[in-house]
Write a structure and sequence with these properties.
Elements (H helix, E strand, L loop, with lengths): L3 E6 L4 E7 L8 H16 L5 E6 L17 H6 L5 H5 L7 E4 L3 E2 L1 H7 L3 E4 L5 E2 L13 H9 L1 H9 L9 E2 L5 H13 L18 H18 L5 H15 L1 H15 L3 H15 L18 E5 L3 H12 L3 E5 L3 H20 L7 H6 L2 E4 L10 E4 L5 H14 L5 E4 L6 H4 L9 E6 L8 E6 L5 H13 L3 E6 L6 H17 L4 H11 L5 H8 L1 H14 L9 H7 L12 E3 L5 E3 L3 H26 L6 H12 L8 H8 L1 H15 L7 H9 L26
Parallel strand pairs: 2-3, 3-4, 4-6, 5-7, 6-8, 9-10, 9-12, 10-11, 12-13, 13-14, 15-16
Antiparallel strand pairs: 1-2, 14-15, 17-18
Helix pairs in contact: 5-6, 6-8, 8-9, 9-10, 12-13, 18-20, 23-26, 26-27
The chain binds 3-hydroxybutanoyl-coenzyme A.
The site of 3-hydroxybutanoyl-coenzyme A (3HC) has 23 residues, from helix 4 and helix 11.
């Protein structure tokens, strides 16, 4: 049996039922059946006046053990009908919930079924089931709106906000006794006997409720167009309001059964466990090492990344020394930290009062003097190898022997970065993602020489600043960069093969990516994208595709979102709209890819003497292929573009797509000299062709 409940009846004739499945008292079918038995036993006993429900070890319940929702089909079948428990027995017989720790999901729903809830001040209460592709399935969709009104209830369910919803707060050592006395007072009618399922006073009038639900549906569709379960949740809430809570409970149970079989739910359950699994690294975290205490951290560089990292550290109570090269850069860095904190308050991630306290932990400096007692240094200067090498060599001289050196690089080889030091064993990569104080991922890069102790130390810091760490090996791009590299490459290839830019982005966003590849390149900026491309091309030449389109656009002074013109056009609010002009660049590429091989073949024909003169091929192309007469025939047109350009394009394509595009010897020779493609052509000189057309100067 996985978990159970324990029934104890005190001298005050109050039965205390304790959910016991340590540490989080997760619910399972066994626990629920045991709860049912305990309640029935309490009701049968002559000496029980009231019931209090609580959890063991100072926790209430973290909700259902979601491993029963994922896993094999057999396992899921064995655990069927979880939701029907709310219909069958979880109905208004429990009196007071004593909540010492997390009461989440099904755990919170057990508490909602009580007539009152007493909690400690730190207990977390919420219905986060939607993060698993489920809906609250033990009556939450019906009870919560009746207790707090629709707007708050929807916020709690759809946005997984953890809100307080208790009748009284008590210190943990008095929690259960307070709940006992509440239960007796309810019995004696000295406190209201409120069955949450039948309350209507907090529910908005029907017309208003419908409007609120309509808006919620609209937001859900907009935020997650591929997800059905938030809409199911809204439908079931509405059903309960219109047809009554009993029907609502039944529908909720049916929907839960259906949703928990879905691939979306199984995927999200998988992500929940996978996320918790990233900090368990075989050969590292199973060595029995204890993380060393990290109190003071130095951040080198107060730019976008450095200030974001410093922000994440100070809000998690670390003391931070922020080092810059001069007064004005330092002030800018500190201003960025302040702005980050303000935006965190706006996003309701931290409380306003926290700002001053967090800033008091930040100390801006211009020298390494205060590095003598730091436990960890995080270098976050621009991506410049020799600068980074110099910094690591400098900090080695002024930091304690045991401090950890982390490098925030997205591509450089860590061995190269530590080349000028004797500290390779304590160098680790800390690849934060922009904005560093918000994005939850942290790539931790280890080399063959990074010591396991240093990895364990850094994992502990990652946990404290609430990042999800993924430990990876040392190579260009690490894991995320390498996986993401083909994202834009394939997209460019598709477009160079004729696909529509906006069509590609649309297909990808429809799939669920927030930004399509072209919108993403605009966001990153063409310059940065090119630097990254070049690094990958150098590291993985055999599988790199060098896109032409970006350089074509750069020549037209397009550089991405920051210049309001990239693949898209941007208005004052950075709203992107397709640019009808972009078509011409892509269309130009399509035309070139179709006609340059024809030019190539025409050159072979001339070289082999199959045709006597170039102008004959012009006529042949116009009359035989319907090549536009106003373009002067194939060779004439090619000469107007220039043999050098055509040859270089064919060369590029042949490297990517193979010999189909390989320029022939005749073309290569003419291109090298910069001459026209006529057999009788002379370099760079305008001349009358034998057909009488004026040749244009070579491009
Ligand atoms: C029918 C119902 O409506 C359906 C439901 O109830 S669905 C479940 C709803 N419950 C939840 O969403 C709660 C999910 N859990 C959490 O948010 C957090 O674990 C928590 C806030 C409860 C505790 O956080 P924290 O103290 O940091 O511990 P955390 O590391 O997350 O969890 C401790 C262990 O419990 C496991 N765990 C936590 N909640 C779990 C759950 N609901 N199911 C299965 N395992 C769970 C974790 O995987 C972890 O296992 P590990 O030690 O092997 O890695």
């Amino acid at each position: 049996m996985k978990g159970r409940t324990v029934l104890e009846v005190g001298a005050d004739e109050v039965a205390v039922i304790t959910i016991s499945n340590p540490p989080l008292n997760l619910l399972s079918v066994d626990v629920m059946l045991s709860l049912k038995e305990s309640v029935e036993e309490a009701l049968l006993r002559g000496n029980v006046k009231a019931i209090v429900i609580t959890g063991s070890g100072g926790n209430f319940s973290g909700g259902f053990d979601v491993s029963i929702f994922g896993g094999s089909a057999k396992r899921r079948k064995e655990n069927r009908k979880v939701g029907f428990m709310s219909v069958e027995f979880l109905t208004d017989i429990l009196e007071v919930a004593a909540i010492g720790g997390p009461a989440l999901g099904g755990g919170f729903e057990v508490a909602l079924a009580c007539h009152a809830r007493i909690s400690t001040s730190t207990a977390q209460l919420g219905l986060p089931e939607l993060q698993f592709g489920l809906i609250p399935g033990l009556g939450g969709t019906q009870r919560l709106p009746r207790l707090v009104g629709l707007t708050k209830a929807l916020e709690m369910m759809l946005d997984a906000h953890i809100l307080g919803l208790v009748d009284s707060i008590a210190p943990s050592d008095e929690l259960v006794n307070t709940a006992r006395s509440w239960a007796l007072q309810i019995l004696e009618r000295r406190r209201p006997w409120v069955t949450s399922l039948h309350r209507t006073d907090k529910l908005e009038p029907l017309a208003e409720a419908r409007t609120i639900l309509k808006i919620a549906r609209h937001h859900s569709r907009k935020r997650a167009p591929n997800l059905r379960h938030p809409l199911v949740c809204i439908d079931i809430i509405e059903e309960g309001i219109i047809s009554g809570p009993r029907i609502g409970l039944q529908k909720e149970a049916e929907a839960l059964e259906e949703l928990r079989q879905s691939i979306i739910s199984r995927s999200l359950v998988h992500i929940f466990f996978a996320r918790r699994g990233t900090s368990k690294i075989s050969g590292i975290t199973d060595l029995g090492l204890t993380p060393r205490k990290v109190n003071r951290i130095a951040v080198v560089g107060g730019g976008q990344m450095g200030s974001g990292i410093a922000t994440a550290l100070i809000v998690s109570d670390y003391h931070v020394v922020l080092k810059e090269v001069n007064e004005s850069s330092l002030l800018d860095g500190i201003d960025r930290v302040k702005a980050n904190l303000v935006s965190q308050v706006k996003r309701r991630k931290i409380a306003q009062e926290k700002i001053e306290r967090a800033l008091s932990r930040l100390n801006g400096v211009l020298s390494y003097d205060s590095f003598k007692d730091v436990d960890l240094v995080i270098e976050a200067v621009p991506e410049n190898l020799s600068l980074k090498q110099q910094i690591f060599s400098d900090i080695e001289k002024c930091c304690p022997q045991c401090s950890v050196f982390a490098c925030n690089t997205s591509t450089f080889d860590l061995n190269a970065i530590g080349e000028r030091t004797k500290s390779q064993n304590r160098i680790i990569g800390a690849h934060f993602f922009y904005p560093a104080h918000v994005t939850p991922l942290l790539e931790i890069v280890r080399t063959e020489r990074t010591s396991p102790q240093v990895i364990v130390d850094f994992l502990d810091v990652a946990k404290r600043i609430k990042k999800t760490p993924v430990v990876v090996g040392n190579c260009t791009g690490f894991a995320v960069g390498r996986m993401f590299f083909p994202y834009s490459q394939s997209a460019m290839l598709l477009v160079e093969c004729g696909a529509d830019i906006y069509g590609v982005d649309q297909a990808i966003t429809k799939f669920g990516m927030p930004l399509g590849p072209f919108r993403l390149i605009d966001r990153i900026g063409f310059e940065v994208a090119n630097v990254t491309f070049n690094q990958y091309v150098a590291a993985y030449p055999e599988r790199s595709f060098k896109p032409m389109l970006i350089s074509v656009l750069q020549e037209e002074n397009r550089a991405g979102e920051s210049t309001r013109k990239g693949f898209y056009l941007y208005d004052d609010n950075s709203k992107a709209s397709p640019d009808p002009d972009i078509k011409k660049y892509v269309e130009k590429d399509i035309v070139d890819m179709i006609f340059f091989p024809i030019v190539n073949e025409a050159c072979r024909i001339l070289a082999e003497g199959v045709a006597v003169k170039a102008s004959d091929l012009d006529i042949a192309s116009v009359l035989g292929m319907d090549f536009p007469v106003y373009r002067g025939g194939i060779i004439f047109w090619a000469n107007s573009i220039g043999s050098t350009y055509i040859c270089s394009k064919l060369n590029d394509w042949s490297m990517t797509y193979g010999d189909f595009f390989k320029p022939c010897a005749y073309l290569v020779e003419r291109a090298a000299k910069g001459t026209s493609l006529d057999r009788e052509g002379i370099a760079g000189v305008s001349q009358m062709s034998s057909s009488g057309h004026k040749q244009q100067k070579q491009v």
